[in-house]
Amino acid sequence: MLRIYVRDRLGTGVPGVEIEISWAKGQERIFTGFKPDIDPGYADFRLTPNETYRVRLVGVNTSPPDPEIRIEPDKICPALPKDVDPSWQIVFQQGITR
Predict the structure, then answer these.
(1) Alpha carbon 70 to chain centroid distance?
(2) Angle at 53 between CA 35 and CA 85, to 5 degrees
(3) 24 vs 2, 65, 67, CA distance in Å?
(4) 68 vs 11, 44, 80, 93, CA distance in Å?
(5) pLDDT digit string (tens) for 6-65?
């Protein structure tokens, strides 16, 4: 599972942000805000093991380059029970520019 949080510069979750997740054979767009009980700026996406994903906020220039994620359960969490999926968390937070 990929858990994504989008926050403003004060750390408040931002709903309605479009996120593009792409991989070798496709892409999908999701939005924050559909699970306000978790956080207004939260979105999640089910990952397939041994696939590399790139994550970006649509319409937002981010620096450094877009994060890439690859889940290799046997390398990341070798002691994790087979019925439990590992997860990643990414936080995009607006910075202050001068």
Answers:
(1) 12
(2) 60
(3) 17, 18, 15
(4) 23, 15, 22, 17
(5) 999 999 999 999 999 999 999 999 999 999 999 999 999 998 888 899 999 998 876 667
Reported pTM: 0.83
Q: Give the SS3 label for residue 75.
A: helix
Residue that wins the pLDDT comparison between 88 and 19: 19
Q: Which residues contact 73 (CB under 8 A, 6 or more apart)?
A: 49, 80, 85, 86
- Which pLDDT value is given to residue 72? 73
Delineate the domains of the chain, giving CATH numbers in brackets: 2-93 (2.60.40.1120)
